Amino acid sequence: MADLDVKVFRFDPDTDDKPRYDTYQVTYREGMTILDVLFYILENLDGSLAFRYACREAICGNCAMYVNGLQRLACKTQVKDLKTTELFIEPLPSLPVIKDLVVDLDSFFGKYVSIKPYLIPAESPPEKEYYQSQSDRHVLNEAVDCILCGACYSSCPAVWTDEDYLGPAALIKAFRFYADSRDGAQKERLDLVAHEHGLWRCHTVFNCVEVCPKGIDNTSAIQYLKKQAVGRALGMGVGKRAAT
Ligand code: SF4
Ligand code: FES
Fold this sequence. Notes:
This protein has 9 helices and 7 strands. It is an alpha+beta fold. The chain has 2 domains: 100 residues, Beta-grasp domain (Ubiquitin-like (UB roll)); 128 residues, Alpha-helical ferredoxin (Fumarate Reductase Iron-sulfur Protein, Chain B, domain 2), CATH 1.10.1060. The protein has a 5-stranded mixed beta sheet. The chain has a two-stranded antiparallel ribbon with strand order 6-7. The model has no long low-confidence stretch (mean pLDDT 95).
């Protein structure tokens, strides 16, 4: 593959009047990821470039950014898979920029915390451990894979137009605990999400599903919670999700 022509969004709100795009020529090497490209720039061309990362293996969720028109993890995205030598790297859209490719995730994590992302058992703790059958755990398999990268949140038109919308990541976590066989706070959990800035704001656009680097079907989980909320309103109670 030929060398890369890389345009990178640059903005420091403390010193810049407006954002700009800087262009860098990067020497391609086999196996290069977008994160490798950013390190090449940082170490060889411009030490002032700011970006976030930690694990480098698609686990921590820190390196989500907007690459060639799609939310992606920089450490997971192979340059050769983009099938172009022209790269366009920007911060996650719809989130405030702290510097260059680093965005402010305070609102994202504030919404995550608001859905109470922890077990609230109905009974007092058992002597040894909470038992969960394999089939009950299977229900949660997708949802527990969420690494809170924010890609879905950034891609969602409902987030763009309603700053109070919980967004797909908080809602998949709400599902994750609602459907957990060990949890006993289903009524409270539905109350936290069944409102105009929660479940009902999702218009099933599926952007979140398209961009999720973990292949999580947020939309189906949101639809499931909607059905549970409607069932409760009709006096049908609430129930666990059948094993899939
Ligand atoms: S659901 Fe997927 S895209 Fe959204 S925060 Fe979790 S891992 Fe990231
Ligand atoms: S650096 Fe951790 S997910 Fe990319």
